[in-house]
Amino acid sequence: MQRSASKLVEIKCGIYGLGAFACQTMKPGTFLGNYVGHILTNELAEKTIELAKHTLLNYLFEVTPDEPDVQLSTFDAAYLGNATRFLNHAEKGKANVEARITLVIGEHQLGFFTTKKVKAGDELLLDYGESYWKGKDSDPDPS
Q1: I need a surface site. Which of 15, 27, 62, 93 has the fewest CB within 10 A?
Q2: Rounded CA gap, 142 and 48, in Å?
Q3: Do the Cβ atoms of 113 and 97 come closer than 8 Å?
Q4: What's the predicted TM-score (pTM) here?
Q5: How many whole angstroms separate alpha carbon 141 and alpha carbon 46?
Q6: What CA–CA distance (Å, rounded) separates 42 from 96?
Q7: How far apart are CA 137 and CA 125, in angstroms?
Q8: What letter would DSSP give residue 47?
């Protein structure tokens, strides 16, 4: 996986508060970065979810891989993270970023890649998936 030396993402006001925006035009498949955060046990993740309901700040990313033999954790980027924690939600057809599990030097990591051409200034959006919205009022897609 090659990484670009130039800045790809900037953080500014987006559709749901702070968002990640493209600093330059990107081709499909451009690597944006790995999701970085504290790795939580299931018990701590449940407590953090309850806290997030009250603070209205949720930087949890729960990985549910397609491969049943791969066990990945819940990442919490609230206090330790990078620009990828500011990827806001969009429905599947409107999302321009996807999460992929990658294997780097024998370790599974969660990376974000563009799924289509993105112009400089566009907000980078990710479909959070159905399980994210369970127990919440609704999918807040503003469009």
Answers
A1: 93
A2: 26
A3: yes
A4: 0.72
A5: 25
A6: 30
A7: 20
A8: H
**Structure tokens belonging to residue 55:** 């603070």
In this predicted model, what pLDDT tens digit does every residue of 52-95 receive, in sequence order? 565 555 666 666 655 566 555 676 756 667 788 888 889 878 99
Q: Provide the token pair at 106.
A: 């024998």
Tokens read off for 19: 């968002």
Tokens standing for 50? 């309850």
Question: Would you state the structure tokens that stand for residue 93, as one six-digit string?
Answer: 């057809």
Q: Rounded to whole angstroms, how far apart are CA atoms 134 and 132?
A: 6
DSSP state of 22: E
Whether the CB-CB separation of 32 and 113 falls below 8 Å is answered with yes
Helix or strand (DSSP H, E) at 42: helix 42-55
* CB-CB contact of 95 with 115 (8 Å): yes
Q: Which amino acid is at 100?
A: R
3-state secondary structure of 86: helix
